[in-house]
Structure prediction request, 149 residues.
Amino acid sequence: MRVPAAVVGSFAALTLAMPLTAAPAVAASAVKLRAIQYDSPGSDGGSNSSLDPEWVTIKNTGARTKSLGDWTLRDTSRHVYRFPSGFTLGAGQSVRVHTGRGANDPNDLYWKQDWYIWNNTGDKAILRNSRGNNVDTCSWGDGTGTASC
Prediction:
């Protein structure tokens, strides 16, 4: 079927008259993984004094307080830490999530695990928001025991 030239010309004019708009960009999260102590100092005996020095630091780099209630921190082996409901992180503040046991406060949270989460020979930390979307990741290989993200 042949389309008349007048119809093609009208369609082209209509197309050119329509403004071109880009899809909205997804805003990057102000909440970031900053550092991970994946190999706690000393021998890996599984005591709480050895588990607590294994941690992840998360920082709010933004200018507003962020609610992290129901956000998750996980590794590639499906260990999942869920932030307490109602937990907030102030602008410019950091929180450290420890593998072992302790009393949660605004600066330190505890996963309450009986064994290590982060693999010393390589792993990946994944931070997800309450909708399950990845917000930030940090990977490392066999190294010094600490990773900067």
Remarks:
- Confidence is low (pLDDT under 50) at residues 3-27.
- Helices lie at 5-17, 48-51.
- The two ends are 60 Å apart (CA to CA).
- The chain has one domain: 31-148.
